[in-house]
Hints:
Shape: globular
Number of strands: 0
Mean pLDDT: 86
Number of helices: 6
Strand content: under 5%
Structural class: mainly alpha
Order of helices and strands: HHHHHH
Largest sheet: none
Radius of gyration: 13 Å
Distance between the termini: 23 Å
Low-confidence stretches: none
Helix content: over 70%
Amino acid sequence: xxxxxxxxxxKKYSKESGELNKTIILKTICEHLEMNFSDxxxxxxxxxxxxxxxxxxxxxxxxxxxxSFSIIGKFIHKNHATILHxxxxxxxxxxxxxxx
Length: 100
């Protein structure tokens, strides 16, 4: 499993398909992390690799779509608070990476 995914990865897909949506974002993340799309979307688990994929999904959806936290959460069967937490988690990781 490759833990790194870059914004450029998603930009490449947006050029090919025109506009990013939730499905394309999650499929791209799953492809990059070598995970099953259906498992990440529907499986109810707290395993680190699934949580990481969902964090990335929530963060990139917030950047590249105009969907609300609630709508993003419904797509992966989570509530708005989970999506908010995911965004804060990614931003915290980015802040730490800048300091290093």
